[in-house]
Amino acid sequence: MSANEDQEMELEALRSIYEGDESFRELSPVSFQYRIGENGDPKAFLIEISWTETYPQTPPIISMNAFFNNTISSAVKQSILAKLQEAVEVNLGTAMTYTLFEYAKDNKEQFMENHQPVNSTIPISSIISVETPNTAPSSKKKEKKEHLSKAQKRKLADKTDHKGELPRGWNWVDVVKVFEQNWL
Which positions ≥6 away from 95 have C-beta within 8 Å? Predict the structure, then answer.
């Protein structure tokens, strides 16, 4: 079988296996993502597998560069990728995307045993102290209200009812006029 036929068969199998699975996402017919772990789990991570033109005879491209993985240290990411590459070498020449996803699911705890969440965000208190200038509160400018002319106020009052709300259907399009313009 050619590489394209193998890829088509594997694609069909992946679609049927992961149908309805919220963790699986097909980015393109040759690129897939799978979330290992539940939403909100600090040890959850996302694996992206992309097939090359000659896959499965050549290894797929495995990536963990998704934004979802920002809290995982690069050392842990490299460790997971190294273990997945070992699995790739064992399965080279066969359809392996499902195998790799399942291998990652089965070994999630082992992969993440050295995981210490990386806090890539800046604490809010430091943002506030950095961005807030030391100025006296009396120097604040008052916001100006929008001033309307008598004619603008009258026009606005004519459009609204006594509660200040626009009447039902004020922005409806006259269906008859639209049909006359389009069909005649």
Answer: 6, 9, 10, 13, 56
Three-state DSSP class for 174? coil
The answer to whether the beta carbons of residues 118 and 71 sit under 8 Å apart is: yes
Biggest alpha carbon distance in the chain? 81
Neighbouring residues of 53: CB distance < 8 A, sequence distance ≥ 6: 3
CA 144 to chain centroid = 40
Q: What is the DSSP letter of 27?
A: E
24, β-bridge pairs:
34
Instruction: Name all domains of the chain by residue range, CATH numbers in brackets.
Output: 3-112 (3.10.110.10)
Q: pLDDT tens for residues 61-94?
A: 988 888 877 888 888 888 888 888 888 888 888 8
Phi (first) and psi of residue 164, to 5 degrees:
90, 10
Neighbours of 128 (CB within 10 A): 9
Helices within the chain (DSSP H only): 3-17, 74-91, 97-106, 108-111, 124-131, 150-159, 175-183
pLDDT of residue 133: 44
Per-residue pLDDT tens for 113-160?
776 766 544 444 443 434 434 444 555 666 777 788 888 888 877 777
Q: What is the pLDDT of residue 135?
A: 47
CA dist 77 and 75 (Å) reads 5
